[in-house]
Amino acid sequence: MTYERVWTVRFSDADSFGIAHYPRIVDAVHETSDMFMQSIGFPYWEIVEEHGYGLPLVEMNFEFERPVEAGDEVTVELTPDLGTRSVRFEYVARSDGEVAFTGYEQRVCAPADGEGSMELPDDLRAALSEYADADGDGDGSEDD
């Protein structure tokens, strides 16, 4: 199962040619992970205070196959790939049924004091697992 949301590319998201600015695409992806984390009961803005850890972004990468333009309805799919101490959010974005871009965000689980990393807590792992990569290959993490 994947998490999906629709991003409508606004005129303000695009350049004078009507093509979405790269930073706005990154914003849309970050917003997707925000919405996902909230939907599974672990909003980013609460986990540090309520659970004592966070999921800082340590790496991201995207490959574009076709432009995303103002007015497009882009379906952004997120699938978590769980590691021992991290989670990789894999993305596939489609416009008019065609893949526009793919990519990932790598997030490490870190204690609130910022010292090193920690294993994904069981309750977070369980919530993420409902959407996790079906192969369970865990290749989204370097720490497996």
Topology:
Layout: E1 3-8, H1 22-39, H2 44-51, E2 53-54, E3 57-64, E4 73-82, E5 86-95, E6 98-108, E7 110-111, H3 122-129
Strand order of the largest sheet: 1-4-5-6-3
Largest sheet properties: 5 strands, antiparallel
Order of helices and strands: EHHEEEEEEH
* Number of DSSP E strands: 7
Q: What structural category characterises the helix and strand content?
A: alpha+beta
Query: Proportion of β residues?
Result: 25-35%
Protein name: Acyl-CoA thioesterase
Pfam families: 4HBT_2
Descriptive account of the structure:
This is Acyl-CoA thioesterase. Pfam families: 4HBT_2. With 144 residues, the chain is α+β, with helices and mostly antiparallel strands. The protein has a single domain, classed as Hotdog Thioesterase (Thiol Ester Dehydrase, Chain A). Helices cover 24% and strands 34% of the residues. It is built from three helices and seven strands, in the order E-H-H-E-E-E-E-E-E-H. It has a five-stranded antiparallel β-sheet. A hairpin with a 2-residue loop joins strand 5 and strand 6 (98-108). The protein is elongated and about 45 Å long.
List keywords for this structure.
144 residues, Thiol Ester Dehydrase, Chain A, five-stranded antiparallel β-sheet, 24% helix
